[in-house]
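Annotated sample (chain length 591).
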Amino acid sequence: MTREQIAAVLEEIALLLELKDENPFKVRAYRHGAETVMAYDGDIVKLAEDNQLEGIKGIGEALRDKLHELASTGALKFHQKLRAEFPAGLLGLFDLQGLGPKKVKALHRELGVGGVADLKAACEEGKVAGLPGFGAKTQSAILEAIALKEKFADSFLLGSVTPLVSEILDTLRMHPEISLVAVAGSFRRAKEVVHDLDFLVATKEPKLVCEDFTTLAEVESVIACGETKASVRLKNGIQCDLRAVSNKQFPFALQYFSGSKEHNVALRGIALKKGLSLNEYGFTAVEGSTRKTKVPDDIHDEREIYKVLGMSFIEPELRENRGEIEAAAEHKLPRLIELSNLRGTFHNHTTASDGHHTLEEMAEEAIELGLEYLGIADHSKSMAVANGLDEERLATQVAEIRKLNREFTHLRLFAGTEVDILKDGTLDFDDHVLASLDYCVASAVKVVTYDPFLSPTRAAELGVTLLSLDEVFAQSDVITCHTPWLPETVGMITGAHFRQMKPGAAFINTARGAVINEPEMIEVLQARPDLFAVLDVTWPEPPPPESPLYDLPNVFLTPHIAGSMDTECRRMGRLVVEELDRWLAGQPLKH
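Output written by the structure step:
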């Protein structure tokens, strides 16, 4: 598990305990534990796995044991038991704007709401308005939040919003009342997935600028607009916030709103040790401090903030409190790679396997980008699902690469392959084939499974690793479902499982649609465009005309064609008869 996954489990435990009206101190302990896990300088996951957490402030004995179980097994029985006390879709309510623990608790206890679908029905029937502390206005706001959730995602890949950010920055720069413009938040820190966008401007007319911001062509709706801040939802669904500050405040606000939270907390601690208080507005002297550092009044950019604190400037991409502050204090920060440093890239696929562009198209684009070399490494033959190349197709591609190299003067193409490492440890191509290439990328695939009927001994013989269902979803890049449709398996895969999936992971179902809690799966796929689902089966089958599965960009529906015909029926019949013969003779079964 990663520290992020561990912290998420602790946060979820705190939330569930809050829903149970547990002791507030107990709830706070788990939240504080999550913060400690995220902020700890060292490899806290390894320490937890080795049960070496003693002495770390904020982690008591009980929490140490739970962290050890989480890190060493990938799951926590206490967490699973706690989660089982509530409907699987209940936690999805917290994704709706305006709903916190108190309201969710009331909805669940008073109306039996167990998910977004239940809540929508209760609102449409007018039941929510009658609850104490809600009313018609809150009910209407909830319905609006549900509609927004159904229409838009709440997670966006960095690359998908980058052109939009550039357009908004260009527009803001042209405003006559704006002197400085920047994008902040997780986008500036180049996180792979962002949930919202934060823009910062320096201006003497903050109210006017905020009002003008809400009229941008990209705006779908206005969430709020005040004297110094405006929040809007853009047409692609992402929330976008603008903060307007003075020129003097700008460097401090940019540092603060860029985050991360953990980095800023650590940075404020450094400032306090120097007798200074640091926030989004500037430096101030700490009253009563024995350290009398002069409050600087000539800060014009972020670099000077770090300089006052005796540190090298820390690039936004490093600001996660993972050792960058200590390295900056010792002036030993690494130099980040820049686009100008990129001379070429080796691991690339073409349309020969699962790429999007032909060999010639990729070569032309590489020349356009000014690259000096480009390596082509399509999948090898065992990766049939990705149209992997066999020996003959690979030889044809190599010949094409050699031909292009004779034509190019400023680009060198390298012929390679992403060769699978097979279960027995051998490679997918023989040595004489590999010898004809310039290089190869060795691809080792680890197969894990959840199968309550598979023994550890048999799993070892097959070369697979047995895991719990939660662990399979949390650890896998690709999950394929082969579960039979039985009374015990109906709805066994829930939204909670999909929420645990890694960014970029894919779920493939070729079993039966009924084993999936489809409404909960849809909720997660709507909220997380970084996940993908390939569904050969659904429930009902086919999906009803109004199903979101038809329109979700991260869902791929394939025609479910099944059944045996002609000679295949006879072959399967013989297989069954032969197996029965073995069983009657007391021989080991083959299938």
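Annotation: The chain has a mean pLDDT of 90.
Annotation: The CA atoms of residues 64 and 80 lie 17 Å apart.
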